[in-house]
Amino acid sequence: MVAKIILHNTGNEVLTLGSLHTGVITGTFFVLGFLLSTTIADYKESERVPSEFSSILENMYEDAEATHAVYPKFNLEKFRTILSDVARSFGDGIRNKNHTARFDIHRLNELFVEMEKAGVPPNYIVKLKQQQAQLLKILFRVTYIQRITFIPSASILAKSIIPIVIAFILFTEIEPLTGGIIITAVISFILVYMLRLIQVISTPFQAQGKTQDDVSLFLIDEAADHLSRRGEKARRKTKRAA
Prior knowledge:
Elements: H1 2-9, E1 15-16, H2 19-70, H3 76-96, H4 100-106, H5 108-117, H6 122-147, H7 152-170, E2 172-173, H8 177-201, H9 218-241
Parallel strand pairs: 1-2
């Protein structure tokens, strides 16, 4: 707004308002709208991750616990501990780009071998392995969304044309001056805000508390707490039985 006033008072508004301005501004909003719509699709997919991931973890433990009641020779406590580690390491893994969660998921293979030795029917183990594969699939998908930039060339285009369009409006004579200032301010605000919004939601799992638009992982944290409580309950039950 200050720049608009300065340019007006110094007589540097060298462009005349015309139909070309409408086309330029419309084209800019089209590019930003295209980027925003595609980015939101990935963001909405990321919002489903916590519920799917936590439900698989809890379902795996329930299945393993029921199996352990019939085939008690494999280490159920270790199985629970690994699932809890997966839940604890998920958020840190996708935010800080480490592979702890992936390694924790693969540690389940040790327990599957124990189950085979304990005589657990193959169809029980196959179901758990399928759930393990789902955990990996979710982890890989969300890691991909977290790290990639959707159509980098389009993002570069958006970052390039926004300052050009704002400069285009600044150097255009719009009468009366008050109306020109308001129009410049509103269009500039919308363009810059949309670009910032695209940048924020393109990384749905940022450092906790960094932005209010982060996808929350509280369901996975609650799943980890639930597994811990189930472990405590199982240990108390074992002590009473002894």
